[in-house]
Amino acid sequence: MSTYQWKGAGYGLGYSGPGMNLLRQRIDVATLVADGANAAPALALVAAPNTAVALESTGFAANDILEAFWVPKGTIVEQCGIYVITGEGATATIHIGVTSSTETEDGTDIDGWGASMDIETAGVTDATADDDGFGSDNVPGGELYITNGSIDVEFNNATDTAEFELWAKVFWIGDLTA
């Protein structure tokens, strides 16, 4: 299992003040495999965040993690979802959640915003269900990041051709200082 991030990623949201934002990232695994360290954006291992790395020709391995969005302390994540553009063509699912026990108020939940979301078939959409770990039945109002952190994607199966749009509905309430 490897943990990846976007090369040179930093914490932040696309606006300057508190309020709602929709984060979006297209994850094109086939292009990441084909373009390797020259992909735009390129991948990096978390241990070496400014050094681009190439995926193996087999793409993401089962249980690999991609820190898809880096969000600052004071961010509330209400919901996440996907739209599959190019299906993997074989069994392929992802989880969307948090892998660190210290980033959010409720700790680790790798499938908190999405459990076994299908990326096998083009045209599929999926989003946080009310009964997911961080869904509205369990965490009304969203999950609060109490430190800088990331919204993580876990690949449950080897994935080398899927392309999907990942989104997160977030609110920044401020830096949580008195």
Structural description of this entry:
The protein is globular, with a radius of gyration of 15 Å. A hairpin with a 6-residue loop joins strand 3 (43-45) and strand 4. The chain is 4% helix and 43% strand. The strands form 2 sheets. Strands 4-3-1-5-11-7-8 form a 7-stranded mixed beta sheet, with no helix packed on it. Strands 2, 6, 9, 10 and 12 form a 5-stranded antiparallel beta sheet that branches. It has one helix at residues 29-35, and strands at 3-6, 19-28, 43-45, 52-53, 65-71, 75-86, 93-98, 109-118, 125-127, 143-144, 149-155, 163-172. The chain has a single domain (3-172), classed as Jelly Rolls, CATH 2.60.120. By secondary structure, it is mainly β.
Compose a concise summary of this entry.
The chain is built from one helix and twelve strands.
Topology:
Blueprint: E1 3-6, E2 19-28, H1 29-35, E3 43-45, E4 52-53, E5 65-71, E6 75-86, E7 93-98, E8 109-118, E9 125-127, E10 143-144, E11 149-155, E12 163-172
